[in-house]
Specification:
Bound molecules: glutamic acid
Helix content: 40-55%
Radius of gyration: 21 Å
Structural class: alpha/beta
Largest sheet: 7 strands, mixed
Mean pLDDT: 97
Distance between the termini: 21 Å
Oligomer: single chain
Low-confidence stretches: none
Length: 447
């Protein structure tokens, strides 16, 4: 494989789209050796086809804010790859959303979905709409306006969006309401992450965080370690961080830090159930300030402005917020403070320098596409329940989620075990995902 040539071509076609190029570079570096053992992939130009999205929809979204002023945002849906199933992936509402971000996320989603063992292709979408400071009514009007364009691109057997940063159960509800009205179709399978009373899967809100901790347990077990009593620092306080904190505490770990864009809250005695429940209120308030935790629980949580969770001594770091949120300097600080494991829960949460630092310094590291795949996997379980008009119990969903995370870990071990016996989880996840998608593309011909 001519990685440099492929990257140069991609950079020329997508100038300045650094996050997208970063995601592709990481995958190509990992799969190069395996790819070169398969001349049939080279002949069918699998990599050249796989790195480009199948299609991109861009649309204007106009809505009226609470002051009566007209607002205009951009909306997108990027259908990346459908080799193993219909397009599937979340919607991100964040002021920094641009095509590069959604292309990197759609690309990652393709591999992640392949790892889940379920038949789902990769997609991503969203808008540069900024939910911070917006009222509930404004969120509803925006979601409705967004869906007046999106509905034509999606469908239960075609493309199934869900949540991501800035899009949770409330937004999915508003989006589905408008979809139903426009499409005159009552198939709840068109979106996942729905409310539990109208087609949503039990445990979907918790699934990304729960799955991440199940994966972490397998990784620790493989390394001869245990999570019990370990100190965990995590970033964010949204849905994913909430699920991760809940399960970490249940498994006997101590969550000693959560963070936000404004700074970090150190929690020396470990997060309590009341604090975990309060994370949900913080998310729903749209204030986007982790300081609110320290205001609500003075004496238990200590806020420091401008600092990251990675400045707090811990055993295990769990980035749960945004891409590139953990730099090489953060990795060094973590190690200096005793951290020996980082499981990336956010998509591409660690910068390449941080990943290399972890890998070169004996710190256990696993990438987001493996660690956080429990979220989309449970979306897949929601689709199955919707298609068969049934609803599984929490135990049924949790058992299936456990099985899927174990299988993802096994795939990483199968493809990532190095000659010296240690597991390179980045390679393992990328090669396992790639082999599945590439084989499907090959079998479906040149399309
Ligand atoms: N946004 C989540 C992810 O990054 C979930 C996607 C889904 O459930 O479709 O995987």
């Amino acid at each position: 494989m001519k990685t440099a040539e492929i990257m140069a071509n991609l950079a020329a076609k997508h100038p300045g789209e650094n996050e997208y190029l970063q995601a592709v570079q990481e995958v190509l570096e990992s799969i190069e050796e395996v790819y070169n053992q398969h001349p049939e992939f080279e002949k069918a130009k699998i990599v050249e086809r796989m790195v480009e999205p199948d299609r991109i929809f861009t649309f204007r979204v106009t809505w009226v804010d609470d002051k009566g002023e007209v607002q205009t945002n951009l909306g997108y849906r990027i259908q990346f790859n459908s080799a193993i199933g219909p397009y599937k992936g979340g919607l991100r509402f964040h002021k920094a959303v641009v095509p590069s971000m959604l292309k990197f996320l759609g690309f990652e989603q393709t591999f992640k979905n392949a790892l889940t063992t379920l038949p789902m292709g990769g997609a991503k979408g969203g808008s540069d709409f900024d939910p911070v400071g917006k009222s509930n009514d404004e969120i509803m009007r925006f979601c409705q306006a967004f869906m007046t364009e999106l509905w034509q691109c999606i469908g239960p057997d075609q493309d199934i969006p869900a949540g991501d940063v800035g899009v949770g159960g409330r937004e999915i509800g508003y989006l589905y309401g408008m979809y139903k009205k426009l499409a005159r179709e009552y198939n709840t399978g068109v979106l996942t992450g729905k409310g539990a009373t109208w087609g949503g899967s039990i445990l979907r809100p918790e699934a990304t965080g729960f799955g991440a901790l199940y994966f972490t347990q397998h990784l620790l077990h493989k390394a001869g370690k245990d999570i019990q009593g370990k100190k965990v620092a995590l970033s964010g306080f949204g849905n994913v961080a909430w699920g991760a904190a809940t399960k970490a505490k249940q498994l006997g770990a101590k969550v000693v830090a959560i963070s936000g864009p404004d700074g970090v809250c150190e929690i020396p005695d470990g997060i309590t159930d009341e604090m975990i429940a309060y994370m949900l209120e913080m998310r729903a308030s749209n204030r986007n300030k982790v300081e609110d935790m320290a205001t609500k629980f003075p004496g238990q949580a200590k806020f420091t402005a401008g600092k990251k969770a990675w400045s707090i001594p811990c055993d295990i770091a769990l980035p749960c917020a945004f891409q590139n949120e953990l730099s090489e300097d953060d990795a060094k600080e973590l190690q200096k403070n005793g951290c020996w494991c980082c499981c990336e829960v956010s998509n591409m949460g660690c910068q390449p320098g941080a990943i290399h630092y972890f890998q070169n310094n004996g710190i256990l590291f696993a990438p987001g596409k493996a660690v956080n795949a429990g979220g989309v996997a449970t979306s897949g379980l929601e689709m199955t329940q919707n298609a068969s008009h049934i609803s599984w119990s929490a135990k049924e969903v949790d058992d299936k989620l456990h099985f899927i995370m174990e299988s993802i870990h096994e795939q990483c071990v199968k493809y990532g075990t190095q000659p010296d016996g240690h597991v390179d989880y980045v390679k393992g996840a990328n090669i396992a995902g790639f082999m599945k998608v590439a084989t499907a593309m090959l079998e479906q011909g040149i399309i």
